[in-house]
Input
Amino acid sequence: MTLRGKNALVTGAARGIGRGIALALADAGANVALGDLAGGASGLTYELAGRAELELAAKDVEARGVRSLALACDVRSAEQAASAVEETARAWGSLDLLVNNAGVVHFDGLASFPEERWDLLFDVNVKGTFLMCRAAVTKLTPAKGAIVNIASVAGKRGYAGGSGYCASKFAVVGLTQALAMELAPQGVRVNAVCPGILGTHMWHHHLASPERGGQAAYEAAIARMVPLGREQTPEDIAQAVLYLASAPNVTGVALNVAGGMEVW
Output
């Protein structure tokens, strides 16, 4: 698959899945704008990426022989979403692909689930995806481009303690399907990728924390939950994004990349 000469914008691109996607797009020949937070309080119990990681990821993209942009972007802000899209299109003349990867997670029982964490999950995972799509659609239409939203298998099945995260990712899948129908007449395709369990900073914090049993508990969860017996990787997710970015007759799907832990 080649995306040579195409221009892409990836949110949450400083590390983890987003960085893996950005590098894979660069390997396929695309110029990549990487959007992420540039520091500041997250409102979460784990640390989010900062400016230094974002700029390093952008340099890694350029090392593939394409162009990159490092953009400070909080997807919860309509102004910052619009600015990221405008900067990308202005720098390279067009926008062909938007990958909405920025996301946060919090697991807790219903009775103790903090209202502010619920709001944050929906602000980033759902509103952020909506704002980026809305900002990008006028740029994607002339190019007959594509949107790929990173959802989750938790957007297809509920998990105990995951009421907020699951609800937010179900919403991303629903948004994907609705936009696929709405934007199809304009030639813009909208799909989602549903990852399983990855060894990223976010998931290690939640599944391999000391109170949950550390790395041994994480590995036991993989063995118990994933039929193919291994965690997913950013490269796994990136391959699915590459496919959806270049498949001209595919829209409205939510593609599982989860080693069989979810099959519908």
